[in-house]
Fold this protein.
Amino acid sequence: MISGKITSSQYQQIIQELSKNKIEFKGDYIVFKADYLKTIITIYQNKRLQYKILLDGLNEETIARNWQIDGIKKERKINDDPQWIEFDNQIGSDEVGVGDLFLPMIVVASYVDKKDIQMLKELGVCDSKKLNDEKIMSIGPKLIKHFDFSKLTLTNQKYNQMIEKGENLNTLKAKMHNQALNNMILKHPYVTKICVDQFVDPNTYYRYLFDQANIVDRIMFKTKGESYYPSVALSSVIARYALLLEKEKLEKKYNCQFPFGSGKKADEFLLAFKQKYGLTKMRSLVKSNFKNVKDAS
């Protein structure tokens, strides 16, 4: 990757030359994005109206020279974590959004062919919690284009309905993991390595699935599974990418910055949102069994 500052005139030149290569973009401060010569070009503008460009791809150095960009080459972080213990073809799953008051719960199961593990390393795929949002937004499109995955999104409205019917957080997670894994096994029936980021002990996990028609067994459970299984790491990053896109949709609709988590910032935002939009609208967007909501109601 090459990162550097550009002038306003350079910015105008680039967007004119690459008008036909422009691709869809989302993210704070991004003003232009293009796919050109197998290189993703992203331009940011900060609050002081200064421009920064990020080149990431096979011809980044050539493009930087052509546009006379005085940038700094950043080495890609390679996840050569020696704790990765499985390198055969595999399916793995992970989830995000569990502790987020305003955001949905998302479970992703992914298939990883052993020949693609090196690609994951080169892109820096690891536990999504170790990657900043800019990195997630950068590699997310590449991952969803190249890898096969199943994504299940449980909206907060549906979450609240399920909680009222007697489900709890862990039963919902178990059933979503099981369904996402089933979706991938249907596409890749010969895969024998099934990996899950462990959130309860295996006996309890299977007990939660007593009413499910198709239960995926032969699972390898591991706490912090993204550190041990490439497929779980991939699912972690794709799920986080999907969560960021959900957050952006909310922010665009309501023209405000929604917080992650359910801490003090969420408390403050919750009260401000309630004052602006009312209690009914507030309750329609949140996980209603969180203590924050009960306090604000």
Summary: The mean pLDDT is 86.
